Protein: NmrA-like domain-containing protein
Amino acid sequence: MFLCWELTFATARNNTLYVYAGSNSKVHANGRAPPASSPNFGSSRSVVFETSYPVGIRNVIRSPPRPTCHSGREDVTGGPKGAPNNNVAINAFSPQDSDALSPTPRSMAAQFTPTFKTFAIAGVGRFGSHLVEALVAAHPSTQVHVLTRGDKHKGDSRWESHSQITIHPHVDYTVDNLSQLLKRISAEVVITTFGAPSIKGQAVVVEAAKEAGCVKVFVPSEFGTPSDGISLGNDDEQGMSAEKMKIAKKVQDAGLPCLRIYNGFFIADIPWVTAYTENDLINVVGDADRPVSYTAIQDAAGFAAYVLTHLPPDQMNTVYRIEGDRKTPTDIASIMDTTLNHVESIPGQLSELRTVLGKLMSAGLGDVFTEPKPDSVLKRGDRSREEEMAKANGLWEGHAFLAVKDVLLPAA
Structure:
């Protein structure tokens, strides 16, 4: 069952999520009226979004559900069928509204010159849609080029008339044709937001970026748990982590700065990954007390946009680890006011995938900062958690990352 609402956009201020609906009305994240000091961005238009489970944003939007609707957010970037499609469609398309997602409020945009202005994004689906809007909102001068294989993109319909967004349909993903396209638009940054089945397809994009001669930074499909610095055993030789590492090496071999961002799991995915959607329990495979890194999808997109528009070029060829919150399955059960259910396999649709993710968390691989179990096939070197946090989250000056409870806590 899909529940739908109309809203305009959401924004975070001081760890509080505000949702703006029609007629300039506002709703506080806990369902109560917002304080008088809450931010106000003026009137705005409404859009429609969907959620595939009865938690999270449902408890933020207090408007009644519509019987039918069409979503401006579809998880189409190679994501598994049945995986959650549950993200707020955020409006960044009018001057008074753009602060909703903007890493830098529009009122301050004239005070800096973006490091990069022209972006090409391939594989724009769920996360990519958030990234498009974050880059648009970052500065009035940014230009975002959306590359799609089909005749239509999968983002917001208003992109087609937006002055900062150009849609490129029927893209031919061959090195020659793609490199010519990147050269024609003078792409400074190429970003791939491919889903798991399409990770290998990034190789062509890397080659095209090299051939274009204008690309200054390549951002591969990461935005999850770390794939760098691991020792691959034979069982993982064909795994996604191995493929991501190969792509990163290919970018470096091409002589392009490679920017990778690890944010752990998206907070909005918790109910699906744990199969809370199936039985109202937090289903766990293995250790329920292993910390897992979680980040709101809009924070991950906003951080990427901030880095690419604010930090100097010499800070692009690196890895950034960010984290909105760090919780164990036991913590999640407490937040959701439910109980743990220890199982051998996570129930529901795509049980095998959910179970693999559950085992990954149990092995300690869901934490973007700490080392997994010593007997794990995937081994990382020692890291200082505090030092990594200071290098990553703190780069986005003045921003308060959303915590798990901010996104999933039921309304009072």
Remarks:
- The chain has twelve helices and 17 strands.
- The first strand starts at residue 3 and ends at 7.
